[in-house]
Amino acid sequence: MKHDTPLLSDLAYQRILEALFDARLAMGARLTQGALIAVTGVPLGPVRDALKLLEADGIVTVHPRSGIQVIGRSTDLVRQTYQFRAMLERPAARAFAMTAPEPVLRDMMALHDTAAEGFAAADPNADVGPRLSQLEGAFHSTIIAALGNELVDASYRRLQLMARIIRVKAAVYPRAALVSVGEHREVIAACLIRDETQAEAAMARHLTNALNRNLGVA
């Protein structure tokens, strides 16, 4: 039984996140432990352990005797998330430009070419957010890994959670997805010619543009 508890805690952690990301639990809401037991199907003990992890990640704040407060999307959260991402991803782009094997870069470019074709052919009113999110996750995580820093990797995992919170219930249409893909391609193209300065600049533009899109000013 002792060996089962960590596994149940991990399951509760994942199910709570899934419920937040698919809007079965509301961002910014105050929840009870009972509500989390119901949505996860996991007993109280593992749910409490999961809440400790979620609190450490900044997703919830546990108030003794008064409930669990879930983080909500805000302008400050958007700005802080992208500010921190820029601090990590700009130097990562430089490192990636100098160290990524050419076959990896060419495969990455081919993946983006295929994605662009798919978005261009999609219904203009279709929500392609999940497809773009998958592409974004692979692109940015691969570049961050170029730093070879476990502390950065841990911080970036939390940033990815915040990025998903920012995008909850936000539809992404093919036209916007093509813009993001084009910005990725600029980073990859700079890496292919081993121009670390250009790669960093392209990443900085991409993150600034993404910030503005999330703030509704682009």
From TrEMBL:
SMART domains: FCD, HTH_GNTR
Transmembrane regions listed in the UniProt entry: none
GO molecular function terms noted in the UniProt entry: DNA binding; DNA-binding transcription factor activity
A Pfam family of this chain: FCD
Domain of life of the source: Bacteria
Chain ranges of the GntR C-terminal domain: 80-209
Domain annotation HTH gntR-type: ranges: 12-70
InterPro entries from the UniProt entry: GntR_C, TF_FadR/GntR_C, Tscrpt_reg_HTH_GntR, WH-like_DNA-bd_sf, WH_DNA-bd_sf
Keywords assigned by UniProt, alphabetized: DNA-binding, Transcription, Transcription regulation
Name by which UniProt lists this protein: FCD domain-containing protein
